[in-house]
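Severity: low
Component: inverse-folding endpoint
Summary: output formatting inconsistent between runs
Steps to reproduce: submit the following structure tokens with default settings.
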């Protein structure tokens, strides 16, 4: 139908231009060239309908979480009252009859049953959130494909709706996570117990899967007024030449940066690797020349470097080259991992004095750095990962700087795609941030209740 209409319009325009007519015995032919791909409006409409359904599911889960929070408050008050009563009874045991003691025991069992029921409800809600997250992730991938294949302006409205949906899901997951991990920013907890499913946010700001080297995340010690700020740096090579900052998550996804800092202007401050973090509005990274620790202050837009005398540039991580100095931040401050020639590639961990920008303490481990996928720090504990298969990564090693003891553990988690080049923890929201084949990916963490107790395998 479109071809016939096009032919008629073309014929009419041609005849008008030539001032010619076609007699009844003559014939006319016309060639029309249509685009090979037609924008899939049906697919976009289906995504919009799905977003409405998911929004309704999230509203239901948010109302459940509000109920969980109110129940938890009530149960905590009852438990506190019972604890006080039991303390009084222990001090004056002869003042209470056997019947009164039995009544207290019944109350304890009732609260116990209520807590078990609440825990089951919360775990069921967690399963629902994981399912919703999978749906949103699949749709974000489809939207990204549409954006890169067709005119991104046609997808923009749906993209905005999905950003709102993601923000609602993030808030729901955050509140849900706080029920399990109420002490964000505190180290009054044990080792990591499990890692969530991958949370896929978006293809990078360049909308280019060729930018496979990079990193992203939040400032681990944000300046006042910058608590919602995100940063991103990405490239098609391991050269680090710029970093962009975004006011909040929405602007990160919409690719609306506040500023892009260039590390190669009047002076060459460029770095290498995918091993940087932002802390206190300052980029810590591996300086390119000379091989050293780099520190670029995004406020003053100046850089300094410090050579680590024993660090070698021969030992990188398994997934990517040039990751010789890897920076990390946790609740205890700023760290850097590296390997030395003297140790034949075994990893060293340095605690950095941020003011002096120098190592103030070094810890030696027995782990061979090139066998490691990546490392990160949580509450003074170094965690190392390795590949299990193309879909699965595993936290397999932990080194506790408080006790100077190392442990072999097994905490598997999903990678989303086979190759990733960046993994770091942020103490502000207790999340892992991963840069995976050009995509922004993050994870929630759960911890053991028993402090300083890991699940040892060997």
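Observed output (run 2 of 3):
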């Amino acid at each position: 139908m479109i071809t016939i209409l096009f032919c008629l319009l073309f014929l009419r325009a041609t005849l008008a231009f030539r001032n010619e007519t076609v007699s009844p015995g003559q014939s006319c032919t016309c060639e029309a060239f249509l685009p090979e791909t037609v924008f899939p409006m049906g697919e976009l409409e289906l995504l919009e309908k799905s977003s409405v359904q998911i929004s309704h599911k999230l509203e239901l889960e948010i109302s459940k979480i509000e109920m969980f929070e109110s129940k938890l408050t009530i149960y905590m008050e009852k438990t506190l009252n019972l604890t006080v009563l039991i303390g009084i009874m222990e001090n004056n045991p002869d003042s209470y009859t056997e019947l009164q003691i039995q009544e207290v025991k019944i109350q304890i069992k009732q609260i116990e049953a209520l807590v078990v029921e609440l825990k089951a409800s919360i775990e069921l809600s967690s399963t629902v959130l994981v399912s919703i997250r999978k749906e949103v992730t699949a749709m974000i991938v489809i939207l990204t494909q549409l954006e890169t294949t067709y005119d991104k302006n046609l997808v923009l409205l749906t993209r905005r709706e999905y950003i709102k949906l993601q923000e609602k899901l993030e808030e729901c997951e955050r509140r849900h996570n706080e029920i399990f991990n109420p002490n964000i920013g505190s180290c009054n907890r044990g080792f990591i117990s499990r890692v969530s499913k991958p949370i896929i946010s978006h293809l990078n700001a360049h909308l280019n899967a060729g930018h496979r080297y990079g990193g992203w995340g939040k400032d681990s010690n944000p300046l006042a007024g910058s608590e919602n700020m995100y940063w991103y740096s990405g490239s098609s090579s391991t050269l680090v030449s710029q970093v962009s900052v975004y006011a909040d998550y929405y602007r990160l996804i919409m690719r609306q940066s506040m500023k892009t800092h260039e590390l190669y202007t009047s002076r060459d401050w460029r770095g290498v690797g995918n091993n940087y973090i932002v802390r206190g509005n300052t980029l810590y990274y591996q300086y390119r020349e000379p091989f050293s620790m780099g520190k670029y202050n995004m406020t003053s837009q100046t850089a300094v470097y410090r050579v680590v005398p024993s660090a070698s540039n021969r030992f990188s991580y398994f997934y990517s080259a040039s990751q010789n100095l890897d920076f990390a931040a946790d609740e205890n401050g700023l760290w850097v991992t590296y390997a030395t020639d003297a140790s034949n590639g075994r990893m060293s961990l340095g605690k950095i004095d941020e003011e002096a920008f120098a190592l103030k303490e070094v810890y030696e481990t027995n782990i061979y750095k090139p066998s490691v996928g990546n490392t990160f720090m949580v509450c003074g504990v170094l965690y190392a990962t390795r590949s299990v298969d193309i879909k699965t990564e595993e936290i397999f090693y932990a080194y506790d700087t408080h006790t100077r003891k190392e442990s072999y553990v097994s905490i598997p988690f999903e990678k989303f795609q086979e190759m990733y080049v960046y993994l770091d923890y942020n103490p502000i929201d207790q999340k892992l941030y991963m840069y995976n084949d050009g995509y922004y990916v993050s994870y929630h963490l759960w911890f053991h209740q028993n402090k300083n107790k890991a699940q040892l395998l060997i």
